[in-house]
Design a protein that fits this description.
about 475 residues, binds aspartic acid, binds magnesium ion
Amino acid sequence: MIVMKFGGTSVEDAKSMQRVIQIIRKEQSRQPIVVLSAIAGATNTLLNAARTAQEGRLDEAILALNNLLDRHVTLMENLIDNRTSVQQIIAVSRRRLEELRNLCNGIAILGELTNRSLDAIASVGELLSSQILSEALRSQNLPVKWVDARTFMITDNEFVTAAPQFEIIDVKAREILAPIVSSKTIVVTQGFIGSNANGITTTLGRGGGDYSASIIGAAMGAEEIQIWTDVDGVLTADPRITPSAQKLRTISFREAAELAYFGAKVLHPSTIFPAVKKDIPVIVLNSKRPDNTGTRIVSRPPKTNIPVKSIACKRGITVVNVQSLRMLMAYGFLESIFSVFNKYETSVDLVSTSEVAVSLTIDNTATLDKIIAELSTFAEVSILEKQGILCIVGDQMRSSAGVADQIFHALKDINLVMISQGASEINMSIVIEESKIDEAVKRLHEHFFEPISATDMFEPVGGK
Ligand code: ASP
Ligand code: MG
């Protein structure tokens, strides 16, 4: 069997949902478990409504919820021909919305919004979208069963960022889903949502739908996990910077994890972790262009002697230089530095150290003033704003000599602020001025990819 996960933009309107149905129909013989996100924007609307209610603007919250219901009703009416099915599913959706209104009412009265309530509210997005898809599949004569993910996606009690309890999920998912799958019935369930041991709704954190797909795939021992989104897959570079960017047919899990931080559209590393452990390929595909072959993310991609696979970049980076006030770095210096970032919940991305100084990069500067003040009590601090990170990734960088030399040569007249090569040696990250990022990406792409015409590795963006 396979897992097919569709993100919010894949199910945003009737036309998109119709495309999704065609995609599922094609894969019907592979016994799919379909994992769905809320329709695009629904999760944000729901969470905002909850906050609006908490601030005492109940009417505004209710209006937003009613509009959201209307969007779903329009979707159903345009998608499902069978009038009785439409009426039934509209009734179900109305009931869910009614519960939400009551919840918002309570929140407004108390003026208190807990994470537990946030999860209860957010979960409605996935529940609605999955029920609509399930009804639409049924009305097109496909054998389908809607399954509430909260019956098997058991998590801890950390509402809003709940951690899945893998051992329990393994047992429950098989118990509940396997009989449906083996009766050749398509499972439709929700991403993102789960429940704690007491049956209270939880969520895995924003964007958690991919994580759900990967957890379900791992629990069921799926043949593959398809992540349908609105990009063609993983590219050699951003095509807006380099029009000659190509789509990669295959990359390794490790390369994907290194790239994840950069391409907001590529999967989050923790997403693929359950799949990696079970050696299940994850395929990123574009539901707007279903004939495209996407990018396969696998543990052992075919051998190649191409050292670099992708050049990613990120702008809006701030470099923090911290210099010890003593001559030599004292014992515990790094710990003191990191504890400051920790205290202000600011994540550090790159680090490079010398005997007397440490440079780090951050992209969230919300509490930078406080961080600087605190660091200054034991170190000298300077800041460089408007920087960018180039990230050059490839499994073969490890075993190919001279790649660093080629990178530095291509960037020879650009000032390199920080250089960091991870222990994995499959990634080199370089900080340069933000205004030089485009030029740097173009030059590196030209150097590493333009001489290559390996059609087994790459495919033009947009596919066939
Ligand atoms: N609907 C959820 C969100 O927008 C989960 C997901 O789409 O993956 O965060
Ligand atoms: Mg989403």
